[in-house]
TrEMBL record:
Protein name: ALOG domain-containing protein
Annotated segments matching region Disordered: 1-26, 169-205
UniProt keyword Transcription, yes or no: yes
ALOG domain residues: 55-182
Main subcellular localisation: nucleus
Subcellular location: Nucleus
Keyword annotations of the record: Developmental protein, DNA-binding, Nucleus, Transcription, Transcription regulation
Family classification: Belongs to the plant homeotic and developmental regulators ALOG protein family.
Superkingdom to which the source organism belongs: Eukaryota
Start-end of Polar residues biased regions: 8-25
Transmembrane segments: none
């Protein structure tokens, strides 16, 4: 069976999905090819110049195409209007096999260790930050393609709960914190001489 290339959600190179025709016809492979890159460049040049699109917009378009290809390769094939939060969770779990982040199990001696001193057989997973950013882009792309916000599968409660669970479990396993740092409010500046109020005029003697 053709090997599955590692899927990097932050990679700027377009990724294409294909269905191998050998032992497992339902398995998906994600490969990056020069032909896909040139095809993407030529098609975008006819409508929009690549230089006019931001990195975020380019990544969002690639993510949307990848998810669409995943739906077409789904067994049975799945249309976007029938896609639910459960299908989004299937997609996220599928992407885990292409992850690069080591997530220690509770039986691992390095569980909760932010900098393990030695390698271990624990699985590689997609980092929570990558999945969270991916869902944000797909959620925006869904509505840009005519989807209604109330029917957005990427904003489903089950998806939010799954991302929260991934965040908490990876924080414990890796010994890191995903809590956002609170910004310190700047201290009020003391008024300068020019800002000080003028003394009231004194009466003449």
């Amino acid at each position: 069976m053709e090997s599955i290339q590692e899927f990097d959600l932050s990679n700027a190179t377009p990724a294409t999905l294909s269905t191998p025709s050998n032992k497992n016809p339902t398995a998906l492979t994600i490969t990056t090819t020069t032909a896909a890159l040139s095809s993407c460049s030529s098609s975008s040049a006819s409508s929009n110049s690549p230089s006019t699109l931001s990195r975020y917009e380019n990544q969002k378009r690639r993510d949307w195409n990848t998810f669409g290809q995943y739906l077409r390769n789904h067994r049975p094939p799945l249309s976007l209007d029938r896609c639910s939060g459960a299908h989004v969770l299937e997609f996220l779990r599928y992407l885990d096999q292409f992850g690069k982040t080591k997530v220690h199990t509770q039986l691992c001696p390095f569980f909760g260790h932010p900098n393990p001193p030695a390698p271990c057989p624990c699985p590689l997973r997609q980092a929570w930050g990558s999945l969270d950013a991916l869902i944000g882009r797909l959620r925006a792309a869904f509505e840009e393609h005519g989807g209604k916000p109330e029917a957005n599968p990427f904003g489903a409660r089950a998806v939010r709960l799954y991302l929260r669970e991934v965040r908490d479990s990876q924080a414990k396993a890796r010994g890191i914190s995903y809590e956002k740092k609170k910004r310190k409010r700047p201290l009020p500046q003391a008024p300068t001489t020019s800002q000080l109020p003028l003394p009231p005029p004194t009466g003449s003697a």
